[in-house]
Write a structure and sequence with these properties.
homodimer; 275 residues; mainly alpha; Tetracycline Repressor, domain 2; 10 helices
């Protein structure tokens, strides 16, 4: 769609020039954002719910430490299953990812996730100290899931390297379509909200994108070695370009409720690699 | 940065194929999102503040209708200045844009904006029926501001068409740097939050992007007519590609607190136009 039959070539005079970075910027886990000011909270209503949470949490922790800690006189046997077992944790992560890929971090309350997951509050606080702690775990789980998806595609020996990337793109499109384009990328959603998020999220989000970018770079390098991409291209710069634009395409697909932005971005990207 | 000295060319075998859209997708103002369910509210705390708002609003409206409505026996003279004059409206819009470009819609409470703008609540409800009404006005004001900025750059007769686009990019970079990369694009922020927003916002956001895209398309067409871009390119597809990726670049610049993503995306885009 980007390339009509070639009829001429363009020149690039440039009165206004942009500096290009001399090195990759994806490995900077510093968090320069200042913590939110007290008056800037998004919920300045009477914090009854938060107080109840805190009391619930403290009572629960107290109870756990007094009943579950090993004591000299305690009888032998299989230890009691903690109320927050791993199944509950997995369910919280699964439901959390579902909600946050759809609506982001700020618009989702922990209570909603508990209700949807059918997990009691005590179980939540057994596994996570706070919403922030939970959010961090969600970013980690999402990165793991997504890196694994990319690895699976990029290891497909039956496809050429560029077709592996096309396969991932088609897969992502199907994934968005399945959920009627309501769910986007957790990292993109949270990246957009960064100014309202706990500062510690910045390096987690940045690391996730850096991981995906490195996996993509390796795929593009293989494409270059196999002659699918010209030797004049730099796989690291192409991979950076891909992930910068891809997050924009996912955002736009959510907004338009259509796969077109994903396809339009992919078409432009492959036109770039083919020159 | 994308083009090293040319040493070979790539081929594009394709086992996995992507469909490309046959027509532009940017003019679909339909909003298929269903309204939020009652149980899905992001704030299920005791809604004392909301009740106070409502009472305040009703009392204010009642007062306005009983004192400001023209009555037969009312004495002549200059009408009383309404409490919500245009200066207050402008201040609300200015402060609202500041807050929402930084943190999005969901994370910002109207009360914060009122405090920061130094505008009383009555004045807010004189101009806007609700946060949703205010949000819609903000999208409109932002589109107006941004379209005007694009027009100013694209009308620069002293620059070549592609340099006009470079000028806009440099300008945007300076704008983000000025606010330490805390503020992004209002349309990108809200687009990312779409699933948590009033459904009516979808067409407003989509229209804004469509406006910017058409202005950019005209600039790229001029670039093509002046020989800066090859005749084989389609300016409408390039403009769509630019705005899909640019929103991703702004998102990433916010996350990385760096201008590099903007520059990397621009470098890739201009490499694409030069082939």
């Amino acid at each position: 769609m980007f390339l009509k039959p070639r009829m001429g070539s363009g020149s690039l005079p440039g009165a206004v020039r942009l500096n290009t970075p001399s090195q990759s910027h994806f490995l900077r886990p510093d968090a320069r954002a200042s913590p939110p000011k007290p008056g800037e909270s998004s919920n300045s209503a009477i914090p009854v719910r938060q107080i109840l949470h805190l009391i619930d949490h403290l009572v629960y922790k107290q109870k756990m430490s007094s009943t579950d800690a090993p004591t000299p006189g305690r009888r032998r046997g299989r230890p009691r299953k903690p109320p927050g077992d791993q199944t509950a944790r997995q369910e919280l992560i699964r439901t959390g990812l579902e909600y946050l890929t759809e609506r982001g971090y700020c618009a989702v309350a922990v209570d909603e996730i508990l209700r949807a997951a059918g997990v009691p509050k005590g179980s939540f606080y057994y596994h996570f100290d706070s919403k922030e702690d939970f959010g961090g775990a969600l970013i980690g789980a999402y990165n793991e899931f997504f890196s694994s998806k990319l690895r699976t595609w990029f290891q497909r020996a039956d496809l050429s390297p560029l077709d592996r990337l096309r396969g991932f793109i088609s897969d992502a499109e199907k994934g968005m379509e399945k959920h009627a384009f309501r769910r986007g990328c957790l990292v993109g959603n949270l990246g957009q909200e960064m100014a309202a998020l706990p500062p510690g999220f910045r390096s987690l989000l940045s690391s996730a994108l850096s991981d995906w970018q490195h996996l993509t770079e390796a795929c593009l390098l293989e494409a270059q070695n196999q002659g699918e991409i010209g030797k004049h291209h730099k796989p690291d710069a192409l991979a950076a370009f891909f992930w910068i634009g891809w997050e924009g395409a996912v955002l736009r697909a959510k907004l338009e409720q259509s796969p077109d932005p994903l396809r339009q971005f992919a078409a432009g990207f492959f036109a770039l690699t083919s020159n």
